[in-house]
Amino acid sequence: MMGFYRSEYKDPLDSSKKKFMAVTQFEPTDARMAFPCFDEPNIKATFSVTMNAPESYTCLSNMPIIKEEAAEGKKKVVFDKTPIMSTYLLAFVVAELDFIKGETKDGVEFRVYTEKGRSELGQFALDCGMKVLPFFANFFAIAYPLPKMDMIAIPDFAAGAMENWGLVTYRETALLLDPNQSSAQAKARVAEVVAHELAHQWFGNLVTMDWWTHLWLNEGFATWAADLAVDTLFPEWKVWVQFVFTTLSQALHLDALHSSHAIEVEINDATEVNEIFDAISYLKGASVIRMLANYLTVDVFKQGLITYLKEFSYSNAATGDLWQHLETASGKPIKDLMSNWTKQVGYPVLEISDLENGEVQVSQGRFLSNGTEDASKPTWIVPIGVLNAGSSESYYELLDGTSGLLSGVNTNSSEWTKLNAYQSGIFRVKYSDSMASKLITAIGKSELGPEDRLSLLSDNFALARASRLSTAKALEVLKAFNQETEYTCILSICACLTELSRLFAQKTDSEEYRGFKRLAEQLLGPIGKAVGWDAKPGESHIQSLLRSQVIGSLIEFEHDETMTEAVARFKSFVSGEAELIPDLRLPCYFAAVEVLGKEGYDAVMKIYKESDLNEEMVRCMRALGAIPDVTVLEETLQWALAEVKAQDIFIVVNSVAKNRRGKDLAWEFLQKEWENLVERFGKGSHLNTRMMTSCTEFSSEEKAVEVEKFFASATIVGATRTLEQCLESIRIRASWFQRDAEEVHAWISTV
After folding, report:
1. Does 197 participate in catalysis according to the annotation?
2. Which entry of 27, 40, 163, 197 is annotated as an active-site residue?
3. 541-556 and 184-199 helices cross at what angle (nearest 10)?
4. With contact defined as beta carbons under 8 Å apart, do 593 and 659 qualify?
5. What is the pLDDT of residues 126-179, one digit of tens each?
6. Which 8-state DSSP code applies to residue 536?
7. Which burial class, exposed, middle or buried, applies to 179 when counting CB atoms under 10 A from its CB (0-12, 13-18, 19+)?
């Protein structure tokens, strides 16, 4: 799925027939597979594309068609010349397509292309796109420079989407929605991905990073700007609250590894590029932008972006160029403030100490999940947002150096103080006992906003993982969330429960596992009853997400009442007696496969085979791995190789690896098939590195050695960094288990 390739799909009008489309995917370095070129981002050119194709086929490229004529039983299609741009942004497609269209308020023609007979599935994406494109044109004060925007769903597509200028290509699940079958989660994803790719039309296409070292200028900005746009379109979705869990927390997790990399990372070879399309470039990059935008204010930040984009339009830029424009706009020393955030690996933990006079001392050091110290002792200039009890406004203090005093904070007060207000900064905080106690009380009283509540939970478990806090203390913080109702906080609670139970309760017949089941019921049972099973007229998008998450997690922890209801609803659905709302299909499919065994598995497989909606097929693939029967799990892995689309094989493998009974099977499968997968998907493919990550989620030194030994003689070009991160993660989990297993056993036994 690189270069100029063929995508295969079933004819939507006759499923017995195969259809094909020819499509491109050139980023990062695969334009050279399609035509001779200087395939580097800072060697730009204009492109004049001419295509010869069968008359019944649609031809698409970056620019509009300027001439079309018959040519020896085919047609010759000539496209207008592109603006000057990088090779990786060129695109062309030949296929039998339908489309729907509209026009933005700025007069840009906008189309969404699909396979024949499926164009109505692109309506939501079209509606979003026609609002997002003029939003960015207004925000960046630069008109979208092309006369048209096309977006197309590709049946076989390795990435999520690709921002080709004027012709954006997508996985089907990132573009298409069925009003009767698509979940709220799917709707949110389509909005976010469409906004992300359209943000690239400015950040990446109009202004391109000078070299892959500065990839974050493309991906970090597109991630941040996408949330900015979606929040404007759908303010009730609370996108910036979700950002703390979905974006910032993931970035912090990866960047706490020794094997992480700086945002500005040296790239010396084309085979290294794929590996940096990761949580650092996308998620940490976006988090750095959010931190700086909040510190400067979005309005000031915006002024710097506008002058930056205008100066470097149709050319290339580096990180320092952005800092210069933000310095001019803000009057602050941005380069000095921000350079260490992009040039250094990692981020700090701030340790808080109470002094006798009530003053607060803050010291910083790099945070590492393995509990060690970085010998180089890096420091950052840290903008610390401070929020005091009873105040609706936070203020900033800068920590410049290894330690300093916080003004305006007095620990002799009975009131709480929250540092890193709204979790705007890229750092963790280890509070003194007195400050922590007041904050835990504030969680129970709902005095803290959702971003601050979930950040306390995230920080405490990160500190426990790194041996800087006892896991029992972190669990006490978790218990304080027993009245939680906010969706994003519930997401964080569920993630903590899953991580802890998979590490400390690996056997389902153990006392630890029974304890975590009880804890899950205590934390999620009340909200589960409150949201119920049936959507209420006019309920919010967030409420739909909450219902799906809570019911899914209660099923994960085998809550009897929830499992019984889920299976009953599944049976009614497959028999045709009742509908099953899309938001509940995945958890009900999981429950059916786990409880009914082969009967449920076969029923879900039937749904998979009869569905023509990729979103529904993905739900089925994720659920099939829940089967308790090891023999069927083995068959499922082989079925994935033989029958599942290449782009989706990793989904099945991941689902088996998540099953406690399937973890070792998935690892054995990966070892056996690794070289075939490398041959099939290419060196450094993220499809392979995703499977590497999910199939090596072990927690013992013995397994670390086993993984290390296997890959020592395997082809890992383009996957070296991922392997290092997998091995380090295994050893972190192993250390955590050895250190705190007895403590967790004692604590969970009292629940």
Report:
1. yes
2. 197
3. 120
4. no
5. 999 999 999 999 999 999 999 999 999 999 999 999 999 999 999 999 999 999
6. P
7. exposed
